[in-house]
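1st attempt posting a full record on here, be nice pls
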Amino acid sequence: MAAAQGRGRGWLAVPVAALAAALAYIAGGIIRGSYPFGDIPRNILDLGQQFIPMHAHLRDLLTGTGPGDFFFNWSSGYGVPYIGDFMAYNGAALSWIVLLFPRDKIDLALYVISATAIACAAGAMTAYLRKLRPTGPVWLAGLAGVSYATCGWALDDGGYMTGWLYGLIAFPLICLMCEWVWKSRSLPSMIVSPFVITLFWYSHFYTVYMATLGAAIVVIARVLSDPDGGDWGRRIGGAVRSLIVVVVGIALSAPLLVPTFKSVGYARPSPDETFHPIGWLYFFGRLLPGSEGVGKTPGLAVGTLMLLLALSFPFNWKIALRERIVWSVAILLAIGSLQITVTHEIWHGFDAPNGNPFRQAFVIAGLIVIAGWISAAAGIRSVSTVVIPAVFVAALYAFAWNNWTSTAVTAVAVPVVGVLVILAWVFTRRDPKQLVLRIAVGAVIAAVLIESGASSYAIEAHRGEKYHTGRAWGARQETSRVLVIGDNDWPRQRVSPGAFTTVNDPMLIGGEGPEYYSSTIPDELSQELLNLGFGYSAFGRSIVDPVNPVVDAVFATGARLTLDPTGELRLARSQVGPFVSVRPLHPWVSDLPGPYGLQETALGASVYTTPKLRAYVDEGSKVTVSDKRPGELTINQPQDLKTAGEFRLTARCKPGSEVYLFGPEFVGDVLVDGQKWTISLTTGAKRPGIFRGAPIRRVSTAGPSGVVDVKLRVPESTQLPDRPIGCLDRTKLDAAVTALRQSQPASVHVGGHSIDVKLNPQTRGLVVMSVVRTPGWRCQVDNQDFRKPTQMAGLMAMPVGRSASKVSCVYHPAGLRLGLLGGAGGLGLLIGTVVVLEFLRRRRLRLAARPIVFTRISPPAEATPPASAPASAPAPPSPSSDTPEPPTRAE
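the predicted structure (as tokens):
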């Protein structure tokens, strides 16, 4: 009776595990005193630079307060596609939690999203484990769910890559859907499961792809080893059904998935990465709780309890031998696949990542938890199933507890929790009293939860010490937003918020600036902006604004946030060109080299000079400057010098000209206005994952004599272009801006992903829009057919004749039609599968209901007996008589 009641209340394990995992995660922040429980910021790396700004932008879209729509983002990069960013950062249903918070609490919204995702992962794993082995202890299933959701990967990698946590949820849920299909073989399972899988492929296709591979490993293990799986026909049939629901689920996500793949294909590529496996001691050292090694090692830790249980699995004789062999081999192969180049590429979709090569580690953590649960559900009675795992863990602890990945929690938690778990097993092994059992269970539960909370604290603290952490929304950000939104006049002009908080401030603060950091940034956009003198980091996936008046004039940036001499934020305004202008059909092209010439071409006027220069080395400096390489100044600094060497570049400009320096590869500092040393690039700027380039930079103003003297210092050998100095004539720039303003059309309307231009009568020329042309744009003149626009200095343009009255441009994500076709195909496959299965079900029912009639067979007629023979026996009644028929037998 008690057992029945326990099973009836088993569903409570799911919400309880979810709550416990969220509390363990939150406990780490409380102990450390990090946001929102203290003043220590937690916006490390991509959490602060990408996920928080992207979610702020999503909130603006959902509330109708931001420029753009779900196809296009007018806030960033002077206009960029959005579907790729939506799928990479905002696609999950949990992202809509941002609507529950005011905009100035966007950091809190992301924290709640992370805690909710971890809670969902714990609940999902608990539900799956209960489905897989319903007979195991309910409380232990909940602890297993908590251990999975707070594994090293979730706290370390997922702690700052919020979107990755959806893969953590997806793995057990896809396994659960496949288990449902495997066991029930019902129509509801075939109908519901694909839509659940679709939901997660929409959430974060990157880690959900890895979760799907992990689920495939689980299904294969179930097919080969399930003791209740039936004959091979039934097993293969179940596997085929699971494959169908996964394929259909992925196909249903095609309307967004295909455009996302297209956008990734158009994205700025990073250099090819060569995978290097790490030492096995460091690899397996991450099995220990509290270990931290983000970006370099796999977060495999699932807590001491689940590690002991998983290690007991191969030695638990209560589990069938075939099941132990299959699962053990599967898990070992999965672990080994993390260290092999070919399988490493498969895990990452044959696109080796720039950064952490062990992003799939959560799947391995899940497999470890599953093995531990199967062993616990079968029962652990023999001494060997306890001693052997304890020896393995003790040996691992002895060799790895002092690794660079270990923390104080690692050193304490493993021996304390391990001893406590073994003692609990000893005291409850032989039919213990109810009180002893409850104390033991309570002690184990407390130990696991405390270990998870302590690991959360230790990992966050160590990660925060290693990497830059941005500030949460505060008074400075509020001031920035008030200034930017207060001067909003889009699309007549852009307002740039700069990059005072993140490199995605246009999404975080508001406005329409050039700053943009995304893995899906179009390569054409990145390259054109770099050609115009923009800086970059992350191989060009992050754009750095040069704060240049010519660029502002070209892209209609009429106001921008800047700092006054006291360091306070203010809004600087300037007269700039319109968002749309009409140029000659054959526009003027500058003959200046590099970004100065391209800026002039985009502006349509000559405003720069690039004078010849001379280099002077200060007395006592060991630096040498050479111009022997064509198009390049080579600066050599002896490697053995501990101090930076200094030199000067001198040139002559028109008096009063603004002087700019262009040195995208220059590592060193430049003295601005003769007063302040400003860093161009630091040593190590070309490290993988960083790979920076410097923007064009204003350095001084030419005096009355016109002589320009630019002082530089270098810590190492570096280089500059042979004409790095540009002299900007402000008078000419003002005249060019006036000409552009006079050429603007009658009216311009910018929609979410469209531009509609009404032309002045008798307009003839090139309609130029201040947006970089990227794949997906199509334009038409009047009612002619849509066609791909042309470009002028990278800007989108359309030629028109005197009879033209309007130009309309629309952005359609590349691959959208193919994606819709794929989604329709997936829906058709689902309907077809359901129809076939329903037909087969009805056929089986008809066959089962069909009566089977047993007919008596009369013996063959005998020859007429001789007269002396006795009379024959009475003939049996005919079938038409009233004798009842035998009962129908069901098939």
